[in-house]
Specification:
With about 110 residues, this protein is mainly beta. Helix content is about 0%, strand content about 55%. It is globular, with a radius of gyration of 13 Å.
């Protein structure tokens, strides 16, 4: 499985961005999709998870502001990020776990200015 993330950029606090992650295979065959982020000097953390059946979960730091969704026809998972804060600045990675293997996209940088 290959994951290609895009959509990062520079935005002012309070703004929004939508990240995209295109998968090389059919999303219908994937039970778990997630977005992680890693800020400078910090560990990578999970921010949003999408599981088969449409269940979603979010970290407390982004709950109510970020939304993970999928477009099965495009084999793409999205992360809509609203009300962005400077502390959301990080490299964002899409992730899936399939048949015992962890797959990561290449990361896309999100910078939120105050």
């Amino acid at each position: 499985v290959q994951l290609q993330a895009s959509g990062g950029g520079l935005v002012q606090a309070g703004g929004y961005l939508r990240l995209s992650c295109a998968t090389s295979g059919s999303i219908n065959n994937i039970n778990f999709l997630a977005w992680f982020r890693q800020a400078p000097g910090k560990q990578r953390e999970s921010v949003a998870v999408f599981t088969v059946g449409g269940s979603t979960s979010y970290s407390d730091s982004v709950k109510g502001r970020f939304t993970i969704s999928t477009d099965n026809a495009k084999n793409t998972v999205y992360l809509q990020m609203n009300s962005l804060k400077p502390e959301d600045t990080a490299v964002y990675y899409c992730n899936t776990f399939l048949k015992g293997t962890n797959y990561w996209g290449q990361g896309t940088l999100v910078t939120v200015s105050s």
